## 1
Amino acid sequence: MALQWMILTYVVAAEAAIALLLTLPAPKLLKSRIVSVVSLLLQPCMFVVPFAGFQLADIYWKNEHRLMCTSEICTAAERDRYEKSIYKAQRNVILCATACLLYWCIYRICKYFKHVESLEEVEKRYKKL
């Protein structure tokens, strides 16, 4: 069951690296090339959003059907195991939310850069007139 979390962790790390690359200052030609490549990659990488949503639904279902270990009957080892599973679930929720948020940020950065480029082209046309 840890494979999907490992994949999601790598995806979040890659998204963070791409977001950092997009926000670093670079020459205009290089920046436009990077944005065009990332824009081409955005649509196939859309799988991240439903994948993270499915993982969130899985966490919610497991949380609703988890055995509670809060009474005096539980041993210390059972209580530790219960708390560890709660911490893992919280970490995984943060990971899923981060994956979706970073994807949205990358999308908006690319869209913003393309909008700025189109406005610059319009400005150039008006200056030529």
## 2
Amino acid sequence: MPTYNYSSNGVPPSSHVLGETFQCFWDCGQGLHCNALICGYDLSKHLREVHGIHGSDKTRVYCLWNSCNKDVNKECLTRHVEEIHMRIVYMCECHSTFSRKDTLNNHKKTCPSQH
């Protein structure tokens, strides 16, 4: 397990939190990115309203973030971009960090700091 020198907010280096502002690197064709500034909380809305990500949860879509081209279910796209491209982490009160919110929620069920 790697050892990190945590910043003042307790987040490992090169990781981010959902409330930060990010530049959108969704490919828009001809080698150009969207470049919009978005809050991490608004990623799903941005992908839907600006980049036309629509359909049922099981609709297959390609991640066009920085030419990733990974084929995922629409329901997984936001989580994929947060985890892989934006490097967003979720932090427990015990200072453990997780790359996925569902993993944090599972951890909280047994974490002593939650009881």
